[in-house]
Design goal:
The chain is an all-beta fold and 604 residues long. The chain is 1% helix and 49% strand. It has 2 helices and 47 strands. The chain folds into 3 domains: 224 residues, Exo-inulinase, domain 1 (Jelly Rolls, Sandwich), CATH 2.60.120.560; 140 residues, Jelly Rolls, CATH 2.60.120.1560; 208 residues, Distorted Sandwich (Beta-galactosidase, Chain A, domain 5). The strands form 10 sheets. Strands 2, 3, 4, 6, 11, 14, 15 and 17 form an 8-stranded antiparallel beta sheet that branches.
């Protein structure tokens, strides 16, 4: 590992103690795409298809018959003309939605929440400084011929045209009082593109440009823009978000200035103080440490469902509902994670009992209790001041400036924690992670380089690094292909170190049986991919095959370009090389003979 790396520490608000992370995944519904029945009077440019494909240079997409994909067969004849937007029959208020989308080169579309507030979908591949009109941007509002209030995405997470991308949106509808006057503007809780957060808690004062309606309402249909360019959409899922109204009442507390491992042990002596209170509040314990406090009361549950509770405190603690333990006795602290548990509850009143035993003087006092259910946001059952303010956790980010940066770490890849990983960052903003044990590319990404927080903050116990850009996951196996193996690891592939060129880019060396192999990944021209050069020397090299790519599907697109994993990424083979495709372990592999130097590019 080179030690002359540069890094900066940024402030992250995501882990502040008074911000609750959702514990329950929403119950997502599928928007059916077997036909157009989910949409209101769709124009003829919208159709259902079974497959779409295209290269990164195509300005249109090729389709195949079938179902499961919504496709806008856009043409210049309908550009900017009314009547070609698509509206769902479903109307929504607060909602979470996610979907995959594909657009060709130069295309432009957008999804309008309640047909009024647009999140932009655009071919922003390679854009250095994205604006509100780029992918993931919240489009501007419009008045008197001028735009205002547009919000650019925090990063450019766009993949190449012709690849499937993913968008997630959490939206809060505007609120209105009893007289119908707007009391609270619409808000995007978050917008994510390809797993990267574009926005958080962005308030939208009114409908954005080209909205279907100028007014604002509690409910409205989704609208997909159809008069700007082709777009394909699949795996469209949504979850309406209910406003959970849970009331805690008839609350009493008992406070003991001593430690105890259970309410029974604490009750051996009289409480230091006790009484009725309006809310669960850690401030009822005046001591900083060595105390036991418990609360009892009732919860009014609005509807029958599965409910999840989470608690945060310092020391030991537990929660019971109707005499049943929901959160097992557990230990945590103000710098750690909350503990949680779930139970099914009927509508109506339920008794609760919780207690905390604070016996660690190095952590601050505090107590929170949250409740949530699928398709609702979490509700705090404690007083706001019951949880202390604290400085946010840092983000320790490694930059790639000047020369390439090489960082050794652990890294999670496809459910496994790999221990011999290097992440290589380049000033061209094209980066990759590499498994030294297998000579394997694990993932590639663009933009910011590496999040090293879990390696270097405090104890750095996970010792894992993660990409700061939108990663494209690769198969992560050795380039040497041996189809007789029953697993992807190649035990005879022995790492022999690496050398650096003048720019700091590494060339990795391996020995495979009696052969020597070198492997140099580096940014491709214009930063639009990663170029990999593999070379093999020694007697018998003509018998070795190199694995260029592996995925569920590999489809030739033309001129040496291959679509990997049904639109996950492209591989561009150098001219004069003629690969073959085989089936291996229920997947397909793209192979080239090892008797020559091989050069190819991964494009995403």
């Amino acid at each position: 590992m080179r030690l002359n790396f540069q890094f900066f520490i940024a402030v992250s608000l995501l882990f502040s103690l008074n911000i609750h992370a959702q514990k329950v995944k929403p119950r997502l519904k599928d928007l059916p795409l077997e036909n157009m029945e989910a949409f209101n009077q769709p124009a003829s440019n919208w159709q259902i298809t079974g497959d779409v494909q295209g290269s990164f240079s195509d300005t249109s997409l090729n389709t195949a018959k079938g179902t499961g994909i919504l496709y806008n067969a856009y043409s210049r004849a309908i550009q900017f003309k009314p009547g070609h937007q698509l509206f769902t029959k479903m109307e929504h208020g607060d909602i979470i939605l996610e979907f995959d989308f594909m657009i060709p080169k130069g295309s432009n579309s957008g999804i309008y929440l309640q047909s009024r507030y647009e999140v932009q979908i655009n071919d922003s591949w390679g854009v250095k400084l994205p604006k509100h009109g780029d992918l993931g941007g919240i489009y501007e509002r419009w008045k008197d011929g001028k735009g205002y209030e547009g919000k650019a995405p925090l990063k450019n997470a766009a993949f190449a045209p012709g690849l499937w991308q993913h968008m997630e949106i959490s939206f809060q509808a505007p609120r209105f009082d009893a007289a119908g006057n707007k009391s609270q503007s619409a808000k995007f809780i978050y917008v994510k593109v390809n797993g990267i957060t574009m926005h958080e808690n962005i308030i939208v004062g009114g409908p954005t440009r080209a909205a279907a309606f100028d007014d604002e309402k509690p409910y409205g249909p989704l609208m997909i823009q159809g008069d700007h360019g082709p777009i394909a959409i699949r795996n469209f899922k949504y979850a309406p978000q209910d406003e959970l109204k849970v009331a805690a009442k008839d609350i009493t507390y008992k406070y003991f200035e001593k430690t105890a491992k259970s309410p029974e042990e604490a009750a051996v002596t009289k409480p230091t103080s006790q009484g009725k209170v309006s809310a669960i509040d850690a401030r009822l314990a005046p001591a900083r440490d060595l105390y036991f406090i418990q609360f009892e009361g009732k919860l009014n549950i609005p509807v029958k469902d599965q409910y999840t509770f989470s608690m945060h405190f310092s020391g030991d603690g537990s929660l019971e509902i109707d005499g049943k333990t929901v959160i097992e006795k557990g230990w945590t602290h103000m710098g750690g994670f909350p503990i949680d548990g779930s139970t099914a509850l009927e509508a109506g009143d339920h008794t609760f009992k919780l207690w905390v035993n604070k016996d660690i003087n190095w952590s601050r006092s505090g107590l929170s209790l949250y409740i949530e259910k699928p398709n609702s946001r979490a509700v705090a059952l404690h007083a706001p001041a019951s949880m202390p303010e604290r400085a946010p956790e840092p983000l320790i980010a490694v930059k790639a400036q000047g020369n390439a940066e090489i960082i050794r770490s652990f890294m999670n890849h496809q459910g496994k924690k790999l221990t011999h990983v290097v992440s290589v960052g380049d000033p061209a903003q094209v980066h990759y992670a590499y498994d030294l044990m297998q000579g394997a590319l694990l993932q590639v990404w663009r933009g910011d380089f590496l999040n090293a927080t879990d390696m270097w903050h405090e104890r750095g116990e996970p010792q894992t690094a993660t990409a700061l850009g939108a990663p494209v996951l690769l198969a992560g196996n050795a380039p040497v292909y041996d189809k007789t193996l029953k697993k992807d690891s190649v035990t005879d592939y022995q790492y022999k170190g690496y050398t650096l060129n003048a720019s700091g880019q590494p060339t990795f060396s391996y020995q495979y049986k009696n052969l020597k192999i070198t492997d140099m990944p580096a940014p491709a021209e214009q930063g639009r991919g990663l170029k990999r050069t593999l070379a093999i020397s020694g007697e018998g090299r003509e018998k070795v095959m190199f694995r260029i790519a592996q995925g569920k599907s590999i489809t030739p697109v033309g001129d040496g370009l291959y679509n990997i994993g049904n639109g996950s990424y492209f591989v561009q083979i150098s001219q004069g090389l003629f690969p073959r495709i085989e089936t291996y372990l229920d997947q397909q592999v793209l192979l080239l003979p090892g008797n020559e130097s091989i050069q190819y590019s991964i494009i995403w």
